[in-house]
Specification:
mainly alpha; 4 domains; 3-stranded parallel sheet; 19 helices; binds glutamic acid
Length: 474
């Protein structure tokens, strides 16, 4: 049978990194098996409706390289299908209308809690006969549909990650499958859809594992075969709490906006709960497709560590700078979002700072001095082991030598050798000459090396900044 997986998010307006991981693992398993990766929008929670969420979701998935196959299923367009299935379940005595009011249910819950019982629907409406049900419906009473948990059974399930599960039906609640507004609950809708879509592997977050017995009962009540289930370990904050918005960024869109590269983010989340069996860490999406296996998913929660993500991102930036080509051109385009500069400059800016950044947004501040030299204090030009006299001497010599330097030789190694020569000829230490050149060009104590800066700025701008520095000292 052709493998078919699905990613089934509720449209919240952004893609959580945990959901990105779920989407990725579904994608990988489908592609690894030459199967299909489908997208289903689970939008039956009317209160949580977010305008435009669906479009932005598809956009983000596509940007990340995880474009879904085939048609996109949207649950809110399928209400009549859920209703039909509910009618069948009622007819077959697997479900029943429940008229209990919110107040009654609340009181019931409180009583149960007071008696230290696990709160659970007490089954009052389960006993209603069809005549009374019809009368109450005719009177216009509001009701939901509950699933009728069979008595004295053991529900058995097998999860590809968490192994065998078995639950007594007496521990399960007659849960709601259709709300009073005729919208289905997640439990019902996703089972019906997974059946209709011919999903072979349900790969989703571990938070759904406790509900699995309920889902299995629905499959059985509908007389359907089960798909394979694969629950993914939780993503955690470094303090081991559940990964949440409160402790920092969780939206893929926010990471992209900050200048994280999609490939780096994808590579990092691939390793959250999965490993290749050795210590390799860098994988392209194609390599992941070849390597991915469900057996290598672990059960333990995986910590989302921003430092590790930074490491991946920095690695990717350096790799792309080294390799050039189409990905480099894309990188340049992204850089231009943070540093609007002419293209020739963007190249140089990446070369200057590429090895020093974790994400592209850091370039914005780092490259400030290139466009606007701050009014730095004159004392900054004097290295702590140097003095005013030697600093002035160093800068004067540098200005003279650089002024005579053939522009066509204006290149890192040659510039370095030349300044070294000047320094040793005049018995100056690096602090007397390299340091003030750095400050003159950057207005900062910490920056790329003075030689890199000279190369970047070229003769005209370099000489002009050194002249400004000399003027400050006089
Ligand atoms: N809409 C559910 C969620 O966002 C989907 C769970 C599933 O994949 O079945 O968590």
């Amino acid at each position: 049978m052709k493998v078919k997986t699905r990613f089934a998010p509720s449209p919240t307006g952004y893609l959580h990194v945990g959901s990105l991981r779920t989407a990725l693992f579904n994608y990988l398993w489908a592609k690894r098996n030459k199967g299909e990766f489908a997208l289903r929008i689970e939008d039956t929670d009317k209160e949580r409706f977010v305008e435009g969420a669906q479009e932005s979701l598809i956009n983000t998935l596509t940007k990340m390289g995880l474009a879904p196959d085939g048609n996109i299923m949207v649950q809110s367009t399928r209400l009549n299908i859920y209703q039909k299935n509910v009618d069948k379940l009622i007819k077959d005595k697997h479900a029943y209308p429940c008229f209990c009011t919110a107040e009654r249910l609340e009181k019931m819950r409180q009583d149960q809690q007071a008696q230290k019982q696990v709160p659970k629907y007490d089954g009052l409406c389960r006993k209603l006969d069809s005549k009374e049900v019809q009368e109450r419906i005719n009177q216009g009473q509001s009701y939901v549909i509950r699933f009728k948990i069979p008595e004295d059974q053991i529900v058995k399930a097998e999860d590809l990650v968490y192994g065998k599960i078995s639950v007594k039906t007496e521990d399960l609640d007659d849960f709601i499958i259709l709300k009073s507004d005729k919208y289905p609950t997640y439990h019902l809708a996703h089972v019906i859809d997974d059946i209709e879509m011919k999903i072979t592997h349900v790969i989703r977050g571990e938070e759904w594992l406790p509900s699995l017995p309920k889902h299995i009962l629905i499959y059985q009540a509908l007389g359907q075969k089960l798909p394979a289930f694969c629950h993914l370990p939780l993503l955690l904050n470094p303090d081991k709490s559940k990964l949440s918005k409160r402790q920092g960024d969780v939206a893929v869109e926010d990471f992209l906006a900050k200048g994280y590269l999609g490939q780096a983010l994808l590579n990092y989340v691939a390793l959250l709960g999965w490993n290749p069996g050795d210590d390799r860490e860098l994988f392209t999406l194609d390599q992941l497709v070849k390597e991915f296996s469900i057996e290598r998913i672990n059960k333990a929660g995986a910590v989302f560590d921003i430092n590790k993500l930074n490491w991946f991102n920095a690695e990717y930036i350096r790799l792309i700078i080294k390799q050039g080509g189409a990905r480099y051109e894309q990188l340049i385009e992204q850089v231009e979002k943070f540093v609007p500069a002419a293209k020739e400059k963007t190249d140089g800016i990446l070369k200057l700072f590429g090895s020093r950044i974790n994400n592209l947004s850091e370039l914005k501040e780092m490259s400030q001095f290139i466009f606007n030299l701050a009014d730095y204090p004159a004392e900054m030009l004097v290295f702590k082991k140097s003095d005013l006299e030697k600093t002035k001497h160093g800068l004067d010599l540098a200005l003279g030598a650089l002024g005579k330097f053939e522009p066509k030789f204006w290149q890192e190694e040659k510039l370095n050798a030349m300044i070294q020569n000047v320094a040793s000829e005049h018995k100056l230490s690096p602090g007397d000459i390299f340091w003030p050149i750095r400050v003159a060009l950057s207005g900062q104590e910490k920056s790329p090396s003075p030689i890199e800066l000279l190369e970047f700025f070229g003769p005209e701008e370099s000489l002009s900044r050194i002249k400004q520095a000399i003027a400050k000292l006089n």
